[in-house]
Amino acid sequence: MAYKELFLSLLVVTYVNAQYKVCVLRSDTSTCQNLDKDGSEVECVGVETRLDCAIKLARGEANFGAFSEEELLVLGQMQLPDVQVVATIRSTEKQDVQYAFEAVTVVPNNHSGGLEGLRGGRYCHPGLDSPDLRWSPRVLKALELSAARSDRCPGATTDFKTAEELEVEELSKFFSAACRPGPWSYNTTVDADLKSRYSSLCSMCEDGRCTGYSTASVVNVAGVNNNNRHIQALDCLVTNGTVAFAAWQHVQEFFLKRNPQHVDAYSLLCPNGSLQPLSIDVLGQVVSPCATVRQPWRAIVASSLTASEINSKLNIWWTDGTDPGSGSWQSALYQSLVGGSNFRVVGESLTTPLNYSSQIRPLDIATSAACLTPRRWCTISALETTKCQWTAAAAYTLGIQPTISCERRNGVFDCLNDIKEGKADFSSVDSHYGFLARQHYRLSPVKLVQNTRTSASRVAAFVKETSAQANITRFENLRDKVACFPEFGGIAYVSFVRAAHERQVVSPSECDYARAVGEFFSGACAPGATDAAHTVYEDSSFNASSLCSACRSSSSANSSISEYTCAWDNTNLYFGNNGSLLCLADPATDVVFVETENIAAQLSALQLNPNNYRALCRNNTLAASTGVNIDDGCLLAYVVDAEVLTRRNDPVANSVNTLFDTLDKFFGYNPNTQLINLRLYSPFDSTSDLLFKDTTIGITEPSSTANHEPARNYIELFRHLESCTGAATPLPAPGLAVRTVFSIVTLLISLFMSRAIF
Ligand SMILES: *[C@@H]1O[C@H](CO)[C@@H](O)[C@H](O)[C@H]1NC(C)=O
Ligand SMILES: *[C@@H]1O[C@H](CO)[C@@H](O)[C@H](O)[C@H]1NC(C)=O
Ligand SMILES: *[C@@H]1O[C@H](CO)[C@@H](O)[C@H](O)[C@H]1NC(C)=O
Ligand SMILES: *[C@@H]1O[C@H](CO)[C@@H](O)[C@H](O)[C@H]1NC(C)=O
Ligand SMILES: *[C@@H]1O[C@H](CO)[C@@H](O)[C@H](O)[C@H]1NC(C)=O
Ligand SMILES: *[C@@H]1O[C@H](CO)[C@@H](O)[C@H](O)[C@H]1NC(C)=O
Ligand SMILES: *[C@@H]1O[C@H](CO)[C@@H](O)[C@H](O)[C@H]1NC(C)=O
Ligand SMILES: *[C@@H]1O[C@H](CO)[C@@H](O)[C@H](O)[C@H]1NC(C)=O
Ligand SMILES: *[C@@H]1O[C@H](CO)[C@@H](O)[C@H](O)[C@H]1NC(C)=O
Ligand SMILES: *[C@@H]1O[C@H](CO)[C@@H](O)[C@H](O)[C@H]1NC(C)=O
Predict the structure, then answer these.
(1) Which helix (H) or strand (E) holds 664?
(2) Among 128-132, 280-284, 530-534, which is the least confidently predicted range?
(3) Which of 78, 89, 115, 645 sits at a 20 to 30 Å CA gap from 60?
């Protein structure tokens, strides 16, 4: 007992003197300085995103932070321990209401049969792109989910279908006509296709197209915005609809100010199927009689240990829950957590985020009862799995389909293999492994990433300056020399294969790219060449151990006799990009094929002088100067650095494809105000390159017509590599005449194969 009291008093003493740590987004640059002013009690902890803040709160590395409405639901989904809601942030005009908004269902008074009674009806919707009120897709589709069960599809065939198609298919069976504007899919092709095939769901819009409602015949009334889609949906209801879904505040505006003559003809349809007739009195109430969805306010959340202190401190720092102003640190804190003057902070009795949000908006913990089974994302580290789980919870909270589940494996090859075997569905994979993934694991891309200009994957060939000055000036000179590659079958390896085909030094009819390279060079270090996971050609009869003849085991680093190794880890001194640079420094080797990202730093770490090397360009000339800064025209490949892969021709592929369009929309770098502050392409919990590399800026289609140049190049590279059929005659001794024959053969092959599928 005595110990406990001592401990407690120590705690109190500590906290009285210590500062409270508040999460501040790194993008918010001035707040941290202002929080150090004038004897401030608060100190800033920079976070990448607000979800990172939640993780810090749970670990006690920060004391409090602010979260959006939808983020609170995510915290509930994750059942994050040791954090509590201490105050809500309400808009001034609705500060006595419990809810940020209410979404209600309005029907004519003669409606009968509850939710099921809506079947066959005419549905007026504010639009999936309605920017008003920060409605998530789950909110926007709440009536559809409860009445039409649009997330269930008994008897429907789901193979090759997207979640969007299944949803619209169910809706079109349920409603006879509708106006449901906005994107039905964030994949524009799918969206256009669905709009044309299920046009009854647009038939009540202007011109029967889902771009929006007609406003031509609408009269103007002061205080009512005719361009507001909720008002337009209610107009649609009273014109010719049988049900409208809209925000309570707009229902009030519409019936009180615009169309008082209709008030007595309409009711709210409650979730339990009962009707609540509208009247001037009812419409005068700030809270609706019943709502399809009610949204909890955004809130300030604190770590449990300091929650009650923060709760009482907020009262002191911000009198009446308002901004104290006058440039004080308290004001800076208010501006950062709460925002402008339209808000008011209301203290709450401490409770968990789940408890807080579920009393207002209960949300099942991610359920698998949906049209599509959860799609399994293969991850390769504990932190990556965690980021995946947060992404899955955030996507589920927003109502994104299909749901995501997270699989944990030990490495990229385990993922490739388990996707192949149907034990996982997709993964974002380094383009380094693109060829192996296609060739050995039979996977195919659903999306490619887009990279920042400086970060795409660039492959170059370098020779020693001494040989460049003597006898290696062209690809032809590399025959019977010794080559270094970071890894067998990797992007640098296959980029060389293509360059060698183009330069006609390796036969394009040799489809076994181990043999093609192995027989061209007299020796090589291509780590992994003898490993089964790195198979580039099934049933190869070529003994690939010669492709590791130049490797060095790190245990024999100091001795002059090298022990044979073909390992593809750091026990092989020449493994990886930096290892292959060290390999080129070996007097026994002649050429290296590497990725150029960070190459200057890697050389300097190895204490190698870049000016001892010169690039051999794809057009078969030596670079004009020595060193590793080369222009893009000299590269053997300039391609994206990652892609999302699934099984080839698998029934899940289309749904994964459009899932990524949706994830990119909500968690990518789109200029939207995020409902949930999670960044799929940014560091998570202070760790880079989880799920996607930090170099990712977006996604694009795996198509040779993509707008992103590295993406087009990547597809072209594989189009070339996969066009090998073995149909041409083998390469005879090099000679001018033969070269011409090759050109023709290559041309014929590429014409013949130009319809190759990836
Ligand atoms: C409800 O009333 C409207 C007119 O107010 C009428 O057109 C419609 O047929 C009625 N529906 C039912 C189910 O009685
Ligand atoms: C949309 O999805 C389909 C697969 O369902 C895909 O083929 C297409 O390229 C995607 N992208 C766009 C921009 O339409
Ligand atoms: C109302 O909807 C019905 C059914 O879709 C249609 O036949 C009728 O022409 C519509 N009336 C008006 C005034 O738009
Ligand atoms: C249905 O819900 C409304 C609003 O919450 C409530 O007033 C009504 O009593 C409920 N009716 C039944 C039958 O439970
Ligand atoms: C959750 O809320 C209920 C009802 O308000 C309360 O009894 C319970 O103690 C709360 N649980 C927690 C963990 O705060
Ligand atoms: C290439 O030149 C180097 C240095 O001049 C010489 O040692 C080597 O024998 C030459 N190799 C061939 C194959 O000509
Ligand atoms: C491949 O060659 C190496 C070295 O020449 C030899 O030790 C090995 O037994 C060969 N492997 C096969 C499968 O022939
Ligand atoms: C190689 O030599 C370095 C220093 O010269 C030494 O630190 C290292 O332990 C040696 N490695 C082996 C495997 O003997
Ligand atoms: C290359 O880099 C890796 C990771 O940074 C390191 O473990 C390895 O020792 C490096 N290899 C060489 C040859 O320096
Ligand atoms: C080959 O490519 C390099 C690098 O882009 C360029 O500088 C050079 O002019 C090209 N040479 C020829 C003959 O096209």
Answers:
(1) helix 653-667
(2) 128-132
(3) 89
- Show the tokens assigned to 617: 């360009």
Is pLDDT at 599 greater than 50 in this prediction?
A: yes
Q: For the chain, give the longest Cα–Cα distance.
A: 98
Q: What is the pLDDT of residue 477?
A: 96
The whole-angstrom separation of Cα 303 and Cα 74 is: 16
What are the backbone angles phi and psi of residue 110, rounded to the nearest 5°? -80, 10
Mutate which of 248, 272, 285 to test ligand 4's pocket (most atoms within 8 Å of Cβ)?
A: 272
The answer to whether residues 75 and 353 touch, using CB atoms and an 8 Å cutoff, is: yes
For the beta sheet containing 696-700, the strands, ordered from the edge strand earlier in sequence to the opposite edge, are 427-430, 642-647, 443-451, 696-700
> Angle of helix 163-174 relative to helix 653-667, nearest 10 degrees?
90
Q: Which atom of ligand 7 is nearest to the CA of 544?
A: 1
- List all residues whose CB is within 6 A of at least one atom of ligand 8: 555, 557-558
Strand partners, 45: 23
In whole angstroms, give the CA distance from residue 69 to residue 72. Answer: 5
Name the strand (E) or helix (H) holding 484: strand 482-484
The number of the ligand nearest the C-alpha atom of 446 reads 2
Bridge partner list, 464: 613
Q: What is this structure's pTM?
A: 0.90
Query: Which ligand sits nearest to residue 288's alpha carbon?
Result: 4
DSSP-assigned letter for residue 221: -
Mean pLDDT of the chain: 91
